[in-house]
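Hi everyone, sorry if this is the wrong subforum. Our group has a chain we'd like a structural model of before ordering constructs, and none of us has done structure prediction before. Sequence below.
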Amino acid sequence: MDAHALAHQAELAENWGYQSFWLPENHFAGDAAIPDPLMLLAAVSARTRTIRLATTSYLLPLRHPLQAAEQVAVLDRLSGGRVTLGVGRGYQASMFDAFEVSRRDKRRIFEWCLATMMRAWQGHPIPSGEGEVVLSPLPIQQPHPPVWVAAFGPKALAQAGGLGLPYLASPMESVERLRTNHRRHAEACDAAGVERPAEVPIMRTLFVSQDAKLVAEIRSQLELAARQLAAAQRPGVSLAAADWAIIGEPRYVQDKVAAYVEELGMTHLIVTRLRIGRVETTALEHSVRTAAEMLA
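Answer:
Right subforum, don't worry. Here is the predicted structure as tokens:
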């Protein structure tokens, strides 16, 4: 992934009024790979001033907690306190094999890693051999940068809820599945005796245009992509684009976003990029700019 292109996208987003810029983490995916989102966000930081710098799935089981805590703290200081850290466990067997991490232990490693990072960010001594170490530098945001948890299955939802942290769903889960998962997350918060988080973020593919032919073409391509994912046995993927994408003319998009707020209590809409065939850059930029103006 080209850092210069991402920084340019973030500059445009900031100028158009977006509040945050998000990157996932993925490995061994050819040109689409983003193995180190924090490094790319550091490049974005240098070209922006106010937009928050965020990850959707910084994969903790692949990292030592102290090194991860240091890297996040450095980015938080570099950006003037603009980091939001979405953390995840990962799911691809080939990735865990490549990094020699046991898939069976990923939830245990995740929770240990996150707990250690949170203590380190607050300046607490962390046991190390026969002694202790204290993180330096500490992040600007205290007690730590906001942490959201990517969770796709019942066990992951229970873990996120038990920690009292906001839950990030897959961008291709249907509204019905989201409703069920948010209920499970809330129940897990209650069972753990922790306060339900105020943030309800939802990731959606969004494209807005007055061009009905272009809208129909994009919807068709998205449904083709959904069929390919379903064939690859990705759980929770709906074949109908309307279940997980917001594609249409301006009024339709406004009504659809309002429905997410009313039905799910959405507080943050994270617009994911279109992963389809060729769409002209001007059309994409027009859509992103129009969405910002409509939904401000």
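For your construct planning: The longest helix spans residues 212-231. The chain has a mean pLDDT of 92.
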